[in-house]
Structure formats: C-alpha cells, structure tokens
Design goal:
By secondary structure, this protein is mostly helical. It has helices at about 15-25, 30-40, 50-75, 80-94.
Length: about 90
C-alpha cells in the first residue's frame, strides 16, 4: 500500500523522546510504531462518571502520599499527621 498522506501532530519534547524510545524498544521506525499503536490498538471507552471518580481517587492517593512524606520527614509532629489523616478519611467517606 502506498503511503503518501501525512498527519502532523504536536507533542512535547518529553513525549517525543518517550515515543522514540518505545519505537526503538520495539525495533520499529517511528512511523511504523505510531501506525501500529494507532491502528492495531482498540480504544477503551471509560464513561465520564468513572473518569471523574478516577480523578478523585488520584487526588486522594496524592494526598495520602503527601501526608506520608510529611510524616516521614517530621516524625515528631504526630498531631499534624493525625489531623491530615482525619481530613483524608472524611473525603473518602463523603
């Protein structure tokens, strides 16, 4: 099949480097790798409600990570740690 159509896309430097790295790992040139990823992979449909819940869970997870990092940095300030955990728990239970 003759390939003579071009589809320009914009990516960041980091995205471009990652795509190039993945193409190299697969032993494919950049064009073939992108075609393979776009044509052979089936898109996954996630309902908006589920995406919204996933975003909220990610926020909660980040809050837990931040809290634990603070805890490890400042082990002596237990009351601050417990207050943050109470707030996180309240978010989860609402």
């Amino acid at each position: 099949m003759k390939r003579n159509k071009i589809i320009p896309i914009r990516v960041s430097i980091l995205e471009k480097e990652k795509i190039e790295k993945n193409a190299k790992k697969c032993g494919l040139d950049l064009s073939k790798y992108i075609r393979k990823q776009c044509i052979e992979k089936s898109p996954v449909f996630i309902p908006k409600e589920v995406r919204d819940e996933m975003k909220e869970l990610k926020k909660i997870g980040l809050e837990i990570t931040r809290t634990l990092n603070l805890y490890h940095k400042k082990r002596k300030k237990y009351s601050f740690f417990h207050d943050r955990l109470r707030r996180i728990n309240a978010k989860i239970n609402t």
